[in-house]
Target: Phosphoribosylaminoimidazole-succinocarboxamide synthase
Amino acid sequence: MAPYLFVRKKLVIVKETRLTALGPLRRGKVRDVYTLRDGRLLLVATDRISAFDVVMADPIPDKGKILNQISAYWFERSRDLTPNHLISIDIRDFPNECQAYADILQGRSMLAHHARPLPIECIVRGYLAGSGWQEYQEHNSVCGQKLPSGLKESERLPEPIFTPSTKAELGRHDENITFTAVINLIGETLAQRVRDLSLAIYRRAHTEAEAKGILIADTKFEFGLIGDRLVLIDEVLTPDSSRFWPLTDYTPGRSQKSFDKQYLRDYLLGLGWNKQPPPPPLPPEVIANTRQRYLEALRLLTGRGIS
Model:
């Protein structure tokens, strides 16, 4: 499927051959990654949106720009805790081969160092929600980690917990793994480092976001290696990689409104869709409401709109 990009408020379908001058392409569910001639990466955040591991047929206007700019914001805010792969999101800093596509790339792409990704997803949970809440009701645990009795849905945990998972192939589901399994995959020293960094970044981001009206219920980080140096990669603390709740509406004991794509998931669940391709079409109001939630997250966090 060709990626959809919204450029200057007009829907443009970018054919797979359109950007081939930029180098080899690796396509994810919502982002395209090019390896440039000098070995650096160009990450392009499209307006595709996925739910239940299925990419919707309808894009969300400006979503890629919003995610790209939120990620850049958090990369900068966490740089003193850990280095990251971001070089620039300013098209003027990009290599010459990118300049022909400036209209497409502006605002929705980042130039990054090439890193070898670690084979795990570093998930931090600060609240009882989603699959964690489902497991807790049955076993008083989340991802096998025992928690106090009597917690409510959406309640803040006594301390954030690190619940790693595998990094699944496109179209497959990630699977929760134990910290021992992480050690077996990447070694004890590196496992402890990514766990401690994940918790530290989450705590800082939660404190800052809460002061701005957003509760970050949980999030996913990815790390990689440049030589022997550990760096934060991929996207950081976006509405796609995190669960964002409005602080003004937060009430434990029920599910929460959100700035993320939970709104879209709830709509799809209401249809009785079987979570298998092809996805159902999205009505204009669902597209508009989803876009508005992403925009509000950007505005609250950064104090800015789309640039």
The chain has two domains: 4-114, 117-271. DSSP finds eight helices and 18 strands in the chain.
